[in-house]
Amino acid sequence: MGQPKKSENVPKGMSEKYKKIVGLTNNFCEQNLNQEYAQLIRFATAALCRKRPSPLLKGNEKSWACGITHAMGMTNFLFDKTQTPYISATNLYKKFGVGQSTGQGKSKAVRDALKINPFDPNWTLPSKLDDNPLVWMLSVNGLLTDVRHMPREVQEIAFEKGLIPYIPDDK
For each of the chain's 171 residues, which pLDDT tens digit applies? Predict the structure, then answer.
């Protein structure tokens, strides 16, 4: 897995843009989602601010706030009614005051810029790591294996190498 270290650090030239976007997303998360989503969205926004050139330089903050939230929501099944929290994509666009095509377009730009794939372990909410099969799948001697079913010493090596977020029996 190799989770990258997440940070809210942004270049000075991007700090105002960052503050405006996370002001919108923090408010949205407080009213509709939770603090776990807010934190993940701040990390994603900061990562976009650090890109050279940052895609956030073009477009308005409201559109980017919606797109970043949508991208994190797609990765974490926010639009699945069986999940908590849940919101429909249509309702998300309405609450940010952007059109569907704008929200989807910015979401795609975020996913492309941050190389986010479905079930991406790097952008999975911590509370959903246990349920994400890609977090635990490793190639062991050329065989794709769920490391949770491997001996503890294999799990310890995987953890030390940063391939898994924690040793399952220790949680």
Answer: 444 568 899 999 999 999 999 999 999 999 999 999 999 999 999 999 999 999 999 999 999 999 999 999 999 999 999 999 999 999 999 999 999 999 999 999 999 999 998 889 889 999 998 888 888 999 888 889 999 999 999 899 999 998 888 898 887
**Among candidates 126, 110, 35, 99, which has minimal Cα distance to 71?**
110
Cis peptide before 121 (omega within 30 of 0): no
Q: Is the peptide bond between 55 and the residue preceding it cis, with omega within 30 degrees of 0?
A: no
Domain boundaries, the chain: 12-117, 132-170
Q: Which CATH class is domain 12-117?
A: mainly alpha
List CB contacts of 150: < 8 A, sequence separation 6 or more. 140
